[in-house]
Amino acid sequence: MVGTKKHAEAHGDDGQGEITLIALAPLTNVALALRLDPDFGRKLKEVFIMGGNIEAAEANGIEWVSKIDNVWIKKEWYDRWVNMDTRKSRFIKAFSRKTAEFNRTLLKHPKYSPYDLLTMAIAIDQTVITESVDKWCTVEIGGNHTRGQLVVDWANKTGNKLNVRIIKKVNTDKTKAYFMSMAM
């Protein structure tokens, strides 16, 4: 982030509203970016974050966000995808192997969940979204309800301006076509 700020200063570019951020892991790097550059948030055009609880829990009209529920890929499709005998498919197999094993062995779930790849597909082409809702959300950092979790005002009890689009369903055929093209 420091390098980005130095680059902007050197070239007279403040980058306001030009950055698309896709966060695929814990958000500590985003927090660090905001700490190093307090104006970082104003430079963001849009942010894509894959996260949330698999099971929703509700308390006082506020509910934790659930993951998209229709993107599990069958084992046969996953095996065909990662065994295409291309350099790219071998790479995909290497980075997705642990998640696939975790789903099969610990969760006893025979399918694969490509959530990080799905987040990238949505950022690239939002026409894959088939169902979404706009809600006001915040991250609970004070420990009042939880710590570090996304809190969604499903019933609009706060009256705050809607600030998050929650993706609920996607076109699985279209996303699988994206995933397959990645391996070729």
Automatic annotation (TrEMBL):
Molecular function (Gene Ontology), one example: hydrolase activity, hydrolyzing N-glycosyl compounds
SUPFAM superfamilies listed in its UniProt record: Nucleoside hydrolase
InterPro entries documented for this protein: Inosine/uridine_hydrolase_dom, IUN_hydrolase, Ribo_hydro-like
Chain ranges of the Inosine/uridine-preferring nucleoside hydrolase domain: 16-60, 73-175
Gene3D superfamilies, sorted: Ribonucleoside hydrolase-like (3.90.245.10)
Coiled coil: none
Family: Belongs to the IUNH family.
Stated name of the protein: Inosine/uridine-preferring nucleoside hydrolase domain-containing protein
